[in-house]
Predict the structure.
Amino acid sequence: MSKSKAPAGIHPPVAKLNPAADPRRMRRIIAEDPEWSLAVVPLLTNLCLQHIVKNFEKKPVLDELLPSQKAFVLEQLSPSLPLSVTANLISDEGFWKRCCEERWGIGDISEYGQSWKRMFFERHLENVIELFIPGVTDLSVVLDEVPLCQNYVRRLRISQLLPPIKEPAKFEDEDPSDSVSEEVGSDGPFMDHFDFRILLDKLPNLEELQLLYGVKSCGMNFEWNLFEFTFRDCESLAKALKSCKSLKVLRINQSKVDDEKCRTLVSSLLDHPSLLELDLAHNLIGDRGARAIGKLLKHSRLKRLDIYNNQIRGPGAQAIAHALSTNTTLLSLNLRLNRLGDEGGQAVARALLKNRSLLTLHLGANKLTEPTAIALSDALVQNTTLKSLNLSCNRLGVDGGKVLEEGMSHNNTLLEFDIRLTDVGLESEYSICKVLHNNQNKAHRKRTQDPAATT
């Protein structure tokens, strides 16, 4: 049977095939990477940048990149890269912010000069020192970090210093008494802490140092020797401070600094070229230590001195007052919670008759009574520099309040005067507050008229 042909110009109908049966549509590409897709083909540049990120620890490449490429690499880098690779190569604040947040969580950058990199290296070095155990930790643990940190550390706030591990006493059966006497009478190395001589002279930008010779969270392992600032510690610290020429602020609190240790520390600070603030609060400083501090006031450029909560009595306060009468740099003096008594209080008040630099004076809780109030009243009449005076928690009494009220009636410069818990009487409190209010208004008008004027 012959096949019929379609007329010229007319095409025969094409049969519709099942798509599943079309071999061309059944072809599939199975890639080794299941996430690979023909839809997006990475640029060769991106592949190179990803390779740089992956091999950054072995071969860091950063400065050779364009700004946009550099930003991409920095965003992809892991915060856990070794500091030996990143410390002196990466300055991007975003990278160091990720490093800080990964290690410590949220932090306040305002305390570190708005620099995440400075925050990281200061806190990192603080942690290294706080976990250092003398006689156990190798010195290289600290020294290896110095070249990485030294350009970025401006402040160290050490909240604990660990003593060496004390080995338990071993007694021999034949003569245990000898072992006991040796253990009790010795001042062995287990009483010493981190030696700052190996560190401070290697930090050229260090401006503030805060130390606490104690242990955090010791729990049931509490022993008094965990909170002991030994004389050997003091001597090594004094030598370290003398070599740290950039230091401006020194704080040693709650560390049992007594007279001898205070004298040792002060001797190293007498000719210090940059020290401006000294804080030895919450210690055991008495009159001998106060005399050394008085000598420091005569030979230094201190602007702030905090020695509150110590054991300074009248003679020690007299030594400080004698230096204060000739000092021209100190702006703030805090002597609260000592034992000055009227002997010391009157000496400080007499110093105010000559001193023309002090702006803030705190004499709270010093067992002051009416004689000191009389001396301070005379000082308030003549002194035109002091802006803030605190006499709280003393026993000035009603008569003391009246003489202070009289002195304040002739004063035009004091802006703050704390007389809480002094039993001066309500009338005196009201009159003194009224004078303070007038002085504050005058100061405000002066600042408004002349913004450059300082109070």
